[in-house]
Amino acid sequence: MNNKYYITAAIPYVNGKPHIGHALEFVQTDVISRYHRLMRKEVIYLSGADENGLKMVQAAERENLPVQEFCDRNAQKFIEIFKKLNTTLDFFQRASSKIHKKGSQELWKLCEKNGDIYKKKYKGLYCVGCETFYTKDELVDGKCPEHLKVPEVVEEENYFFKLSKYEKPLLKLFEENKIKIVPEHRKNEVISFIKQGLEDLSISRSKERAKGWGVAVPNDEKQIIYIWFDALNVYQTGVGFGTDEKKYQKWWPADTHVIGKGILRFHAIYWPAILLSAHLELPKTILVHGYVNSGGQKMSKSLGNVIDPFIEIEKYGVDAIRYYLLSQILPTEDGDYNGEQFKKAYNGDLANGLGNVVARIAKLCEKSGLKFESNKTEFKDTLKEHKFHKVLEIFQFDSALKIIWEKIKKLDQRINNEKPWEVIKDPKQQDKIKTILSFYVQEIREIACLLEPFLPDTSQKIKRQFSGKEIQSEGPLFPRLI
Ligand SMILES: [Zn+2]
């Protein structure tokens, strides 16, 4: 049995602070990572920082900081948000690290050895924001579709990667599901992009234009490796590629790359092509999430509607934020973050639904004065919830949560029907009340286990309260928002 699981969150470009969209991805990745840990697998959850490229140099210049210092400061903010979100991130690999640079030069040499790298003069339309050349067809009204800016015309001699050579092998890969893309419509997008024909990819910049920042091309000090060639390789250098062969052999290939829809092409076309060229193994699955809008609009600095996850966590607590991101935003579609929906989900599902049933049962147990069998229900005991495991295996976080809340609702209704508060009063019915309450307690213990990958703190709190022989009531898990 394959007992290891290697999962990555996309490595953010650290030219700014993390926003709520980053939080969505880091939390989604964390749920999968926690799930496999609970299933007793050995897991690595890796992310890192994409730090090379001209955009970083320009951003540092605007703040009057040396580029390395600028990267250090911003990378730190991302490391902090992984912690604040209570993720199980194991490793944060930075693209400006020595280890990474060495590994990226190794990757270059492997592709070169296979005859897939050549030099030629090139003129193209370049968006600095995307660090990408666009063809005229790909522009919208002559502008980059991501940044809505007119790209620069750039002419220089670069190294090229023979992407065109991999058109057929890539098509075969996706048609045979050798790399699984979730959701299916993203796979179709990739296939139709490949079918339009793939052009060779420029994979270096002149040192001058890159302002000397980045990974040097092996044996050519005048050129710097294009950031998308080196950035994707963080997934490999983070587990030892080029520096720790034993570690690399153990962990590569990645089981799942979690990414946003905007960088699908890099992960589903360039990355597998580079790996095929280097004769290295391919990642197994790519999970693609959508964007998080704010109050119905795209988040942007100029609209002033960028949601800062640090502030939200401070205000509502980390599990409330995790719950919103996982239940209110469909895992592979665009979603919205807004106060009204937040309050509704928080009060309805957390304060009333979960919080209320936990408080009700604790109070009944306390009032009965009974002692219960102490018990440590574990996650594997929830395997009988087949449907829950099935939807989680295919990353349907919202559906998995619905299954848990269905259980909560049923339990609440059962309490209403059985009216245990009446039974408690009758001294002749001590056996009956013990049976009734023991059932509730067992149900709550199971609910706590099911919640563990999603709301780890809340799960621990409930477990602590309900695992012993004597059960006491405590303050509300989620105080109502007014
Ligand atoms: Zn752009």
From TrEMBL:
NCBIfam families: metG. Residues 5-146, 150-361 form the Methionyl/Leucyl tRNA synthetase domain. This is Methionine--tRNA ligase. Its EC number is 6.1.1.10. Gene3D superfamilies: 2.170.220.10, HUPs (3.40.50.620), Isoleucyl-tRNA Synthetase, Domain 1 (1.10.730.10). GO terms for biological process: methionyl-tRNA aminoacylation. One of its GO terms (molecular function) is methionine-tRNA ligase activity. Belongs to the class-I aminoacyl-tRNA synthetase family. It catalyses: tRNA(Met) + L-methionine + ATP = L-methionyl-tRNA(Met) + AMP + diphosphate. Keywords: Aminoacyl-tRNA synthetase, ATP-binding, Cytoplasm, Ligase, Nucleotide-binding, Protein biosynthesis. It comes from the Bacteria. The keyword ATP-binding applies. SUPFAM superfamilies: Anticodon-binding domain of a subclass of class I aminoacyl-tRNA synthetases, Nucleotidylyl transferase. Is required not only for elongation of protein synthesis but also for the initiation of all mRNA translation through initiator tRNA(fMet) aminoacylation.
